[in-house]
């Protein structure tokens, strides 16, 4: 992505302080324990990814290329960040997260310039994604009008700050620098670091830290996974990075904690009870002035 991160709305408005994030979630955290909140967020990131990976969706809606079977990861990652940004400012009771999730994909596909997704295909992908969680035993009825209303709500809450800088580009640049430094087997570290970047969307790191910090934390975590943390070449290369290593350690701890919560999250056993705790929207949307919630219909 072109542009300067340090002059972007991402940096100026959407790198938050952890205490501010917890304060904004105060209303939901009266009902949910913090770990329960994390599990709900993990589920909805999984849900967004399931929608985005549906074979009926495509980066190029008008192409006949069978290899274009789902929206690319950049769109999914941006959608996940939009989802987290929205609920960093508002409660689950304001907009039904089952509506917000596909709306975030719809908006992200426009911003990432992959072409506007067909609403018919998108809503079909939502139903297909739900089948991955048979314990939910429900079908969601989402009208196109609700997508438009929810999109407006996202734009308002995010103050139209739609550009998201992801860790993928700095991660790729760091991998090239590692190769240029003569470090062996960089591809192994890079591939696992990329997966960790994807998984980090299930944590709050995208709301709290800069992309290059997340990228380096993912590389260092990958070194641990690949048992390369004692590699002298790697240690020397990392030590030369001009970063705040205290923040890198914080990111690693958040990612490892996310993996712990995710590993202990038995969706088939816990998901229904967690969703049952969520305050559900009752009426219509959303503007900051009207404070009315936006809801969808369930078919059971």
UniProtKB/TrEMBL annotation:
One of its GO terms (molecular function) is cyclin-dependent protein serine/threonine kinase regulator activity. Residues 46-156, 169-257 form the Cyclin-like domain. Keywords: Cyclin. It comes from the Eukaryota. GO terms for biological process: regulation of transcription by RNA polymerase II. SMART domains: CYCLIN. The keyword Glycosyltransferase does not apply. The keyword Phosphoprotein does not apply. InterPro entries: Cyclin-like_dom, Cyclin-like_sf, Cyclin/Ssn8, Cyclin_C_2, Cyclin_N. Belongs to the cyclin family. Cyclin C subfamily. This is Cyclin-C.
């Amino acid at each position: 992505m072109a542009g300067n991160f340090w002059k972007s709305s991402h940096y100026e408005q959407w790198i938050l302080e952890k205490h501010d994030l917890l304060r904004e979630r105060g209303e939901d955290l009266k009902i949910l324990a913090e770990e329960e909140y994390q599990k709900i967020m993990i589920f909805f990131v999984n849900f967004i990814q399931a929608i985005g990976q549906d074979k009926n969706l495509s980066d190029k809606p008008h192409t006949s290329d069978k290899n274009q079977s789902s929206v690319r990861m950049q769109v999914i990652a941006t959608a996940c960040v939009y989802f987290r940004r929205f609920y960093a400012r508002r409660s689950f009771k304001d907009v039904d997260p089952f509506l917000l999730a596909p709306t975030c994909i719809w908006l992200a596909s426009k911003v990432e310039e992959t072409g506007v997704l067909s609403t018919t295909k998108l809503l079909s992908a939502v139903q297909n994604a739900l089948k991955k969680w048979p314990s939910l035993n429900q079908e969601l009825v989402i009208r196109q009008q609700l997508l438009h209303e929810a999109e407006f709500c996202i734009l308002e809450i995010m103050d139209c700050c739609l550009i998201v800088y992801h860790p993928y580009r700095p991660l790729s640049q760091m991998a090239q620098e590692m190769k240029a430094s003569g470090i062996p087997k960089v591809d192994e570290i890079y591939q696992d670091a990329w997966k960790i970047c994807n998984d980090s969307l299930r944590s709050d790191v995208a709301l709290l830290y800069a992309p290059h910090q997340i990228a380096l934390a993912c590389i260092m975590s990958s070194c641990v996974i690949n048992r390369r943390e004692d590699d002298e070449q790697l240690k020397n290369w990392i030590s030369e990075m001009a970063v705040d290593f205290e923040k890198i350690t914080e990111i690693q701890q958040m990612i490892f904690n996310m993996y712990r919560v995710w590993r202990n999250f038995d969706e088939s056993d816990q998901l229904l009870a967690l969703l049952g705790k969520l305050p559900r929207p009752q009426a219509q949307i959303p503007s900051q002035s009207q404070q009315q919630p936006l809801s969808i219909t369930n078919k059971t």
